[in-house]
Amino acid sequence: MTRETKTITIVQCAKFNKDLPALDKAPFPGELGQRIYENVSALAWDSWQEQATLVINHYGLNMADPRANDFLFEQMEAFLFGGDASVPEAGGGAPAKK
Q1: What is the pLDDT of residues 35-66, one digit of tens each?
Q2: Which of 10, 25, 75 is nearest to 48 (CA)?
Q3: Residue 20 in contact with residue 11, Cβ under 8 Å?
Q4: Angle at 41 between CA 37 and CA 54, to 5 degrees
Q5: Architecture of the domain spanning 26-97
Q6: Cβ(3)–Cβ(15) under 8 Å?
Q7: Distance of alpha carbon 11 from alpha carbon 55, whole angstroms
Q8: What is the DSSP secondary structure assignment for residue 7, as one 8-state letter?
């Protein structure tokens, strides 16, 4: 009987500032995708996925619009690596500055 074990890669997560399991692969190609892969935990990426939905809905972003895509990427980078992100809270309301 053959048994495979998966080695878990750990990163020093930029979002949570502690060692956590890494993503299995870069979330998308390019420099930012690689930076996320090397510095963001799977937990932080999952948190961003939830936050991205809130941002898209709160601002009514049309993801076919390149400006909306640019805005979402700016928010993603600020959310994951720190900075001045407009972070809407679940349940609506005005965006809070992080």
Answers
A1: 999 999 999 999 999 999 999 999 999 999 99
A2: 75
A3: yes
A4: 100
A5: Orthogonal Bundle (1.10)
A6: no
A7: 26
A8: P
- Residue whose token pair is 């690689």: 34
Give bridge partners of residue 22 from the DSSP assignment: 41
Q: What are phi and psi of 7, to 5 degrees?
A: -80, 130
pLDDT over 90 percentage in the chain:
74
The residue extents of the domains of the chain are 26-97
Q: H/E element holding 67?
A: helix 66-81
Question: Nearest 5°: phi and psi at 85?
Answer: -100, 140
Measured between alpha carbons, how far is 14 from 90 in angstroms, rounded to an integer?
Answer: 23
